[in-house]
Specification:
With 170 residues, this protein is α+β, with helices and mostly antiparallel strands. It has 6 helices and 5 strands.
Amino acid sequence: MSKQSKAKRDKRKKQQPKRPIQRLNAQQPVQNHAVLQNEEGQVVAAIGLQGTEWLLAIGGQTMGNADNPIPMLAMLKHLSNVQEKEGRKVTLEYSTQMQQMIDDLAAEEGKTADEYLAQLVSEFEGVDGEDEAADGDAAAGTEVAADAADAADAPAADATPADADAQPKG
């Protein structure tokens, strides 16, 4: 082997174009589409789109992901209702893209967007009612809503889906 073979190899590598596989690992930014804020303006929970995956963040932690964000939005709406019943003022705002998705799904079922979202929210309320009647047995949806309500009590100034690389507790 010649003494200059490493230098030639290094020079050849520098001249080659970057391989796309090296850039695939870069994390895509998260676009917020729904944000639940408390009266101090702190983000309690959020739904964001990262690439093609919808992420749910509560209390600064990424709690889950899905292909369809509408059930997550219904959960945030239910959480908003629970917080307001407890006397806390919260606001839920969502993007026009999210509203369009609700409109499309509602049109498929022959309902208005408000009726469709109210139906999904009532499913969470139905889980709460069944939970109380079932001698304290915890239903999966109720656990998530309870965890979300607990997270809403804690201050979460940086609770955005941008914390997607944080590992969920559990």
